[in-house]
């Protein structure tokens, strides 16, 4: 066991776990008062569900063995016959590596909750997350992060989850928003803007565990990931604020926080592969693309993605995955075999990243659509108009936020 690296991954795992309650505050602050409890419960209950699923089958389907490069062989269901004291090639105990990956399995489905808050049936969401984790998330982990995975063998670069986490969650958010349908009435006010800022700060801090921890060691890659994560978040924040100022003549707290999240999302797949200058441009372009989608394109599509889960995680995640093929540099990470397009590497890495991104979008889109269609036959996907009008806090949970 490498004690320094092991300590670092323990700390990183805690930071990633901390992101889920941070997301609950972020989303809870954005919705109307009558849906605050529902939103926060919908995010936070995933913690327990995802941990149990990871124990039962998640780790085994993601990392145990290999079937056609798509999924594991299920050899370690319930962690049976898994030696937790055995270490990886980097000196990290297998049990700790499993724990670190478990935290990603928690936060990823929580991200797409933002697309459908205030109108999705909680029972449907419960069963959807179970089938989604088994049919989409675990296969994506295997395909990208397992050495035998299909996309890994294609040469995909995804340092901390651009495809596995953000495109995955973003495309799922879009599919759910389409099937659930638009809100009957859009509430003009956010419940608590202070919570939005608090949630953003927690997510930003947790993202250091998310990205730097993905180096799985205290080394140059983890240091680089911290720097690039910071740079992309800052450049995206500034860009979103400038765009708001130009378009709306004012800078909002919600917009500023959204810009931060877009930068963090976009740099995730590239964090350990690009220079700080590369991260700077990744953040700027991510904010520009997501702002343009949310402001100009989304209203024309008439798809009600309530908290812009697709507009943020989907759009910025897609850009970040492709941008890795543009900005990746051997000077930033000597372990790379190819430079990105902008660093003299030619089209090869760019085309690999583009292909991997397209495959991810198609796989997640088709599978999420299939799950939704089949599950709708057994569980109602949307609450009644009366429940939606009165808010889901009382009808779904029997709890309400008291008046101040």
Number of E-type strands: 0
Structural class call reads mainly alpha
Please report which band the strand proportion falls in: under 5%, 5-15%, 15-25%, 25-35%, 35-45% or over 45%.
under 5%
Please describe the biggest sheet, giving its number of strands, its sense, and whether it closes into a barrel: none
User: What is the number of helical segments per DSSP (H or I, 4+ residues)?
Assistant: 14
> Which whole number gives the mean pLDDT?
95
Extract low-pLDDT stretches.
none
Helix percent reads 55-70%
State the shape.
globular
What are the main properties of this structure?
404 residues, mainly alpha
Explain the overall architecture.
This protein is mostly helical. Helix content is 67%, strand content 0%. It contains 14 helices and no strands. The protein has helices at 3-30, 36-63, 94-111, 122-145, 150-154, 162-180, 193-212, 220-248, 253-267, 276-301, 309-327, 348-376, 385-390, 392-397. The longest helix has 29 residues, at 220-248. It is globular and about 55 Å long. The model has no long low-confidence stretch (mean pLDDT 95).
